Amino acid sequence: MPHPFSCQCQKLQGVVLEGGTCSRVLCYCKDCQAFARYLRRQSAMLNDQGGTHIVQVAAHRVRFTRGMEHLAVVRLSPRGLLRWYASCCNTPIGNTLPSHALAFIGLVDNLLTTHRIPKDFPGRMAVVHTHSANGSPKPVAKGLPGNIWRFIKIVATARLSGKHATSAFFNEHGQPVVTPHVLTKEERTALASAPAPEIIDDEQEPRP
Question: How far apart are CA 47 and CA 52, in angstroms?
Answer without folding.
Answer: 7
